[in-house]
Amino acid sequence: MSSNDLSNSVISPLGDRFKSDNFNGTVWLNMLTPFGTACPIGNVTFEPGCRNNWHKHAGGQILLVTGGRGYYQEWGKPARELHAGDVVNIPADVKHWHGAAKDSWFVHLAIEVNSEKGPATWLEPVSDEAYNPLK
Amino acid sequence: MSSNDLSNSVISPLGDRFKSDNFNGTVWLNMLTPFGTACPIGNVTFEPGCRNNWHKHAGGQILLVTGGRGYYQEWGKPARELHAGDVVNIPADVKHWHGAAKDSWFVHLAIEVNSEKGPATWLEPVSDEAYNPLK
């Protein structure tokens, strides 16, 4: 491996299908460190068009985008387009969603912050009216 | 991007040269989230042959290997060879080092766990007698 290859760094395998009513499509989850530890880290892969419902985290969350193209949106704000290398620092108790663009897979690491403060609170789906205008 | 491309996910740029007496060669550091937040995350790139000194973390640390080939060793144990996708969960107060193999660059994300417990404690360099036998 030379320094020219660093931008092609490989991360984690897909892991298992993650079945959840909080996503509108197919998602894979590979936990890199377990729930219940100080800093649970999951590798999350969304198929094109798949996003999660609006939700919030009691302790916050950090997203590190590792592949594809997707979006992050906080309630009342415009959606932010995301690409590999982008970092999203989600404050505690801020209502938001994240997921893939319509035509792209999307992969991020999700790092729970202050996880001892409690689990995520899941809310309503992202409406087609909100999602469909995104490119 | 198709699902076949997921294994080539790109991560972070090199960032800045990180000048420190606690490494025996050239290292680059790109902080993805700042020191002083709940969960500081740095992208660390080692040139071939470069490793850090023995050290320990008051709150622990998680390494996510994103590229190249390197090693992690805890005091009194054999070195563990690392490749992209490997995860190292470093317990609090365990003396250890990490760095590149002799012939490879090495890149990992370093996630500080329970960082409010205090900074790392830096100790002596890894001896040539310990490092040179590693392939």
Question: How is this structure best summarized?
Answer:
With 135 residues, chain A is mostly beta strands. Chain A is 3% helix and 41% strand. In chain A, a hairpin with a 7-residue loop joins β2 and β3.
Structure description:
The structure is a homodimer of 135-residue chains. Helix content of chain A is 3%, strand content 41%. The first copy, chain A, has 135 residues and is an all-beta fold. Chain A has one domain: Jelly Rolls (Sandwich), CATH 2.60.120.10. In chain A, a hairpin with a 5-residue loop joins strand 5 and strand 6. The model of chain A is unreliable at 1-10 (pLDDT under 50). At the A-B interface, strand 5 and strand 9 of A face strand 5 and strand 9 of B.
How much helicity do the residues of chain A have? under 10%
The CATH superfamily of chain A bears the name Jelly Rolls
The amount of beta strand of chain A, in percent, is 35-45%
Termini gap of chain A: 36 Å
Q: What is the β-strand count of chain A? A: 10
SS content category of chain A: mainly beta
Described by strand count, sense and barrel closure, the largest sheet of chain A is: 8 strands, antiparallel
Low-confidence stretches of chain A: 1-10
In total, the number of domains of chain A comes to 1
Major protein interface: A-B, 39 and 39 residues
- What's the architecture of chain A in CATH terms? Sandwich
Q: What would you report as the Rg of chain A, rounded to the nearest angstrom?
A: 15 Å
How would you describe the shape of chain A? globular
CATH T-level fold name of chain A: Jelly Rolls
CATH class membership of chain A: Mainly Beta
What letter string, H or E per element, gives the SSE order of chain A? EEEEEEEEEEH
Number of separate helices of chain A: 1
